[in-house]
């Protein structure tokens, strides 16, 4: 036996090592390829998860902004369509002693579905998410219109439960067996969005019922209070009338103490008249029973009557009321009583928030522009209104600053009613105010009459 050639042995060794290196290279390439595939799958899963999260956040935003039940379900179905990839879907609602109703559907034709119910539906409502790979032979689907049933090959049924109601989400696809285990799992996860929509819809319905009940109760209250207007005002008017009569009597003029006592009674009665009057006027407004009595208004007389009514309030805070009527004021066709009430409310408001100052009533005709108007301005030298309070001045029951309503006779309704009456007569009311300087209310009434 001869020894092998050393060069031949080295060649064989090199060939063996090259074969091992080649196998290692191939194994490394296969591993790299597998890693690339896994990375691609991971990236796709991350992309899908991000898309699903985005859809979920969009759905939650829809729920948060919901104000009406039907558009709410339509938006939720739109969001779920991106996630579950169905061709069409509908939500069928169930209630005791009532046939199942289609609450919302992506295809208008699905609203005509008369869902029959049965053992299969009971299983779904008991909490089972069930996919049907073929609708043709299913008993409950046999009751659905054949043309519509024939358009879709598979369906996924998802239970939805809320506090007072039950529903079922039905997802449809034209491909047979479309709803695989992965899609069923996804449907279970995202069905929470549809369930929350059902709960939100319940809350919206409850809120609407409560709101309607509250509105009906408020209207009934307003009608009752408005109908009591005569019964409440007549005794107070009698007290005011008797006080005026007694204040003019010789006994009151000759007895200072009696005159002072009668004056306090008169002022208190006037304030009470204004408080009750404003409350009754607001009730009439809420009940829709405030009407206009149109006639020719003598502006000067109306202004003087308003000032006479406001004088006791001015005297209470040691204020002076000054009247500046432009000469030759045109007659106004409007409601004299409503105009007088507007001016009384504005003058009373100025007197309440001014102490030892002046309140001016200025009336001018403005014939400039296309809308000639009669302009009434009530100016005071009071404390003014802070800028942040200007937005609430005309709101019902708004009180400007730390005023004791019990002492000032303030209900927070005078300016609200003045604004409503002004607009009822086709006019506008604006205000300008500076803290520490005073406030000016400007009422413009069209000379052509009420709008």
Automatic annotation (TrEMBL):
| SUPFAM superfamilies found in the cross-reference section | ATPase domain of HSP90 chaperone/DNA topoisomerase II/histidine kinase, GAF domain-like, Homodimeric domain of signal transducing histidine kinase
What range(s) does the Histidine kinase domain occupy? 227-449
The answer to whether keyword Kinase applies is yes
Q: Which intervals of the chain form a coiled coil?
A: 11-38
What is the reaction catalyzed?
Answer: ATP + protein L-histidine = ADP + protein N-phospho-L-histidine
Superkingdom in the source lineage:
Bacteria
What is the protein's given name? histidine kinase
Q: Which organism is it from?
A: Nannocystis pusilla
């Amino acid at each position: 036996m001869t020894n092998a050639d050393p060069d031949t042995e080295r060649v064989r060794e090199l060939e063996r090592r090259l074969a091992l290196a080649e196998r290692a290279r191939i194994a490394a390439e296969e591993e790299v390829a597998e890693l690339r595939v896994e990375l691609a799958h991971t990236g796709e899963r991350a992309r899908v998860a991000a898309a699903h999260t985005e859809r979920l956040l969009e759905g939650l935003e829809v729920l948060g902004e919901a104000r009406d039940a039907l558009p709410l379900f339509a938006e939720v179905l739109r969001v779920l369509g991106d996630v579950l990839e169905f061709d069409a879907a509908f939500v069928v609602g169930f209630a005791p002693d009532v046939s199942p109703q289609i609450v919302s559907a992506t295809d208008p034709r699905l609203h005509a579905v008369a869902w029959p119910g049965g053992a299969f539906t009971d299983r779904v409502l008991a909490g089972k998410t069930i996919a049907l790979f073929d609708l043709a032979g299913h008993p409950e689907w046999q009751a659905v219109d054949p043309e519509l049933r024939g358009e879709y090959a598979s369906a996924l049924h998802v239970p939805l439960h809320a506090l007072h109601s039950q529903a079922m989400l039905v997802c449809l696809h034209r491909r047979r067996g479309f709803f695989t285990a992965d899609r069923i799992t996804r449907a279970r996860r995202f069905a929470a969005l549809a369930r929350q929509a059902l709960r939100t819809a319940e809350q919206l319905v409850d809120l609407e019922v409560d709101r309607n009940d509250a509105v009906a109760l408020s209207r009934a209250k307003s009608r009752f209070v408005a109908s009591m207007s005569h019964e409440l005002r007549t005794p107070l008017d009698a007290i005011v009338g008797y006080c005026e009569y007694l204040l003019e009597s010789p006994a009151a003029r000759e007895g200072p103490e009696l005159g002072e006592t009668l004056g306090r009674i008169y002022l208190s009665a006037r304030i009470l008249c204004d408080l009750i009057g404003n409350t009754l006027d607001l009730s009439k407004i809420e009940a829709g029973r405030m009407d206009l009595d149109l006639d020719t208004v003598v502006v000067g007389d109306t202004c003087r009557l308003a000032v006479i009514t406001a004088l006791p309030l001015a005297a209470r805070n040691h204020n002076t009321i000054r009247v500046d009527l432009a000469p030759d004021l045109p007659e106004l066709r409007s409601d004299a009583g409503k105009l007088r009430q507007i001016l009384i409310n504005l003058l009373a408001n100025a007197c309440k928030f001014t102490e030892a100052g002046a309140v001016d009533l200025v009336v001018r005709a403005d014939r400039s522009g296309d809308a000639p108007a009669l302009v009434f301005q009530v100016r005071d030298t009071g404390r003014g209104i802070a800028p942040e309070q200007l937005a609430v001045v005309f709101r019902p029951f708004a009180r400007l600053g730390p005023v004791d309503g019990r002492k000032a006779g303030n209900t927070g309704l005078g300016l609200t009613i003045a604004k409503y009456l002004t607009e009822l007569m086709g006019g506008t009311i604006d205000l300008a105010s500076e803290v520490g300087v005073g406030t000016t209310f400007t009422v413009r009434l069209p000379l052509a009459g009420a709008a």
